Amino acid sequence: MDFRAEYEKKLVSPADAVAVVKSGDWVDYGWCNGTVDTLDRALAARTDELKDVKIRGGILVKPLAVFEREDAGEHFCWNSWHMSGVERRYVQRGFGYYNPIRYSELPGYYRDSDCPPDVAMLVCAPMDEHGFFNFGPNASHLAAVCDTAKKVIIEVNENMPRCLGGFENSVHISNVDYVVEGDNPPIPEMGGGGEPTDVDRAVAKLIVERIPDGACLQLGIGGMPNTVGAMIAESDLKDLGVHTEMYVDAFVDIAAAGKINGSRKSIDKGRQVYAFGCGTKKMYDYMDNNPELMSAPVNYTNDIRSISVLDNFISINNAVDLDLFGQINAESSGTKHISGAGGQLDFVLGAYLSNGGKSFICCSSTFTDKEGNVHSRIRPTLSNGSIVTDTRANTHYVVTEYGCVNLKGISTWQRAEALISIAHPDFRDELISEAEKLKIWRRSNK
Question: N or C: which terminus of the chain has fewer CB atoms within 10 Å of its end residue's CB?
Fold first, then answer.
């Protein structure tokens, strides 16, 4: 096959490409920093012609053109696999919704679903000499999207890093219906959450001192995991590996410090494995054509079986709040949606099954609301409507700036005592009183 001739045959204008979208269609928009840009604006231009177009994606790093109009909800609705701040605003405006699912299930969901995409639009790196469009740092579930969509449209962006690796990280021209050459905007960036606070440093220190040489790392999104990464880069740790859902800037810094070589990994030895990545241009430049990195679908990276065979697996994730029973909420504030299930539970389970593995859920002991009131993140019970991301049976280590406790296998009264010991001192007496009412307090730890 003459791939270039096939490319030219399928090359169309953005307006012609989005003409295939009909009212009532399900349209996939890509993922994270691979969300369409030129095609989004072209579809927005058709707003008055369309009704009930259901758009699907996740972790938006910038607003979409289709939702700029005040009446956008009459024409389009957003369906997210994992929400960002942009998407939370869509929820508040009444046309954004969350799709509850374990992130690792996405490829299988698409391939087994009775609701496949009518149209899939994806941002990819330019076609290579073999006819493949690389998904950039977004292998995730996009091969499954392409396998099942009725129409596949590729928006080429010359700035998209070409991310090498394992499998399901590209789509071939023969499986593409239309190609659009976009305006090549810079790939959207996501920072690390600003300078670490004293609380971030205290939590990170408690985690890093429990990481052995040769450990395999997974870092979640947010300031605390990034602070852990920065502290690892400055530590004496060696022979570290990476097997993570999300690739973040912290891994670049750890690798630059000579801490990562993957030499002790039992699978994918020497490779840094990830499902998607979002960070700064520094990270994208590091990922581009880097054979040390392995871009793979999320049903591989987040598979408990993949995680558990890696010795000394260290999983580090955030929580919104938790209760004295050890239930972890990482998704909502009461009924107000924040993010999503993601892969946190997969890594919590996989790390515990790993030989020497540890799962850390970390958070500050308190937070301050908009009115300036301080609240404990450790609560007697979760707020009405809060989502249980990690059940109490699966929680391993919990860390605040006041300490690190292991909840695995201990009774309800021991859990209550352990969690109260790492709560902010100002809230401990209140928590003890509530634990007594819940019949899970056995003795005072004053």
Answer: C
Of 160, 228, 168, 164, nearest in space to 193 by CA: 228
Average pLDDT over residues 30-51: 97
- Predicted confidence band of residue 115 (pLDDT cuts 50, 70, 90): confident
Please choose, from the candidates 310, 344, 167, 295, the residue with its C-alpha nearest in 3D space to the C-alpha of residue 241: 310
* DSSP count for the chain of H helices, then E strands: 15, 24
Whole-Å CA distances, 254 to 244, 279, 307: 14, 15, 20
Rounded distance, CA 346 to CA 339, Å? Answer: 16
**pLDDT at residue 193 greater than cutoff 70:** no
Q: Residues 307, 231, 289, CA angle at the centre, nearest 5°? A: 60
- How far is it, in rounded angstroms, from Cα 35 to Cα 38? 10
Whether the model clears a pTM of 0.90, i.e. scores above it, the answer is: yes
**Start-to-end C-alpha separation, the chain:** 76
Please give the mean pLDDT across all residues of the chain: 95
- Name every residue whose Cβ is closer than 8 Å to that of residue 63 and which is 6 or more positions away in sequence: 86
pLDDT range class, residue 192, cuts 50, 70, 90: low
For residues 127-133, average pLDDT: 97
| Enzyme catalytic residues | 245
pLDDT for res 135 = 98
Query: CA 332, 338, 340, 345: dihedral to nearest 10 degrees?
Result: -50
Helix, strand or coil, per DSSP, at residue 387 = coil
C-alpha to C-alpha distance for 366 and 361, rounded to whole angstroms: 15
CB of 225 within 8 A of CB of 253? no
How high is the pLDDT of residue 445? Answer: 52
Largest CA distance in the chain: 77
As given in the structure block, the two tokens for residue 258 are: 């000579």
Q: How far is CA 316 from CA 37, 250, 275, 412, in A?
A: 32, 13, 16, 24
Paired tokens of 100: 């509850």
